[in-house]
Amino acid sequence: RWATQEARLILPRLGAGPLRIRLRLQPFVYPQSPGQAVQLELGGVPYGRASLTPGWQWIQFDVGPRGRSSGAVILTLRFDNAHSPADVGLSPDRRTLSAAVDGIEISAVR
Fold this sequence. Notes:
- Helix content is 0%, strand content 51%.
- It is an all-beta fold and 110 residues long.
- The strands form two sheets. It has a four-stranded antiparallel beta sheet with strand order 1-8-3-6, with no helix packed on it. The chain has a four-stranded antiparallel beta sheet with strand order 2-7-4-5, with no helix packed on it.
């Protein structure tokens, strides 16, 4: 699924221990496109930033308990850049795209 400049997911209760969040994604690229990076926030707390390279890739963030409550929590991805294929001359598609997200894995860190 394509993300715009910001993507949010509501996650169920995650527990109190440290977590590893892995994301499979690929940035929207075009000739002379700027580099792309993503920042991950959990419950409004920033946990890291990763630069993306063209093509599908897995990135991971290790997160602590800050920002988590006993209920659902919001995972936010903030991307540096988002452009529409129409604005960069690729197609008539006017959707603003930053990266495609294909998978998310969340696991406890022991």
